Amino acid sequence: MSTQKNWILVLIPLVLASVITPVTSTHFTPIQDRDYWPTAGWRIQPPESQGMNSTRLDEFWNHIHPIDGLTGFLLIRNGYLLYEAYWPNLGPDTLGTVASITKSISATILGAAIADGYVTSVNDSVLDYFTDRTIANPSPQKDAMTIWHLLTMSSGFESSAQTMGLAPDWIQYVLDLPMVNDPGAVWNYDAGCSHLISAIISQTTGMSMATYAQARVLGPMGISVYEWPTDPQGITTGFGGLELKLRDLAKFGYLFLNNGTWGPFQIIPTEWVAACTHSYFNFTIDGYGYQWWVDPELSGYSMRGAGGKRVFILPEQDLVLVFAGATTYSILDFYSLFEEFLYPAIIGDTTSLQQPVQEQVLPFVLVLLIIIIPLVVGTKYIQRKRS
Q1: What is the CATH number of the domain that holds 235?
Q2: Disulfide engineering: 290 pairs with which of 37, 48, 124, 151, CB 3.0-4.6 Å?
Q3: Where are the alpha helices (DSSP H) in the chain?
């Protein structure tokens, strides 16, 4: 009889633990069941409506704006535009260069081209896409270079950053460069890698990267006003020069925050988003993915351009932060600024990864009615019968 009681006492906490423990995830997956999509424009709400402190956000802008000459700042949480500020004479309709953020957008467009079957794989040889060209400085290293090496800035090329723009044919110039490292061995941030990605998209789709991007990515997200220059051969610049409104730039961050979905469309495969934001080369405080930066200290990732141009995506807080850049061309310490100003501005969460209380209690009640109570009653009945 004592054995039966002990068995019941052990069973009850085990059953309870299995049914009422909240369902959580160690890897935050952004909520994609949005109540609207900002294709036609962002819905504006006060910061407090989405768990943000407006006074703290004012302090953030007032600190970062005059010291570093920051020209614009947007904050989006849970899909709503909560904070927007600009340098005098600038505003929501102002086009501004995004500099090297263009590289991240080029990688995004490549993901669509792979999904559409135009480009086979990131493991394809780069030279296989330029068989119509005679390429100087041939070598086994150059033959081994793949699209993956372009995406991760580890092509092995001698740097082209300072001289590519002086050449009459930018693509030919980059392909002709001598190899100084084995592909994949050394990270070397270089514009030529990104421009080759644009050329590969153009070569395979039969249209410029900008034209393909408009039909496949920009258009479905409601982006139609922008400037995107080309090289002397008409190839869209893959490394910089793109001009966007800040609100449209924020849409790229929101696309990735939602794992490549946009309303009913899977614009970019979820796997491509994960690949872009995975760190293949790790540095002191950050890492590098497919032309995207990884920010482990923020539990997020970012697009970056010269002069403090940034788009930060923080999935755990459901945040997209956009910075237009600084007039002083300074390098801002965003990590410290977030710690001092941004995180204290988060005063609550409007979403939860845990089950609602009623959903947690219902299984417990069912188990209690179906298993525990009959078991206890049956045990007592047997005891009485034996006595």
Answers
A1: 3.40.710.10
A2: 151
A3: 2-20, 54-68, 101-115, 140-144, 147-151, 170-176, 191-205, 209-213, 246-257, 270-276, 334-337, 343-345, 357-367, 373-386
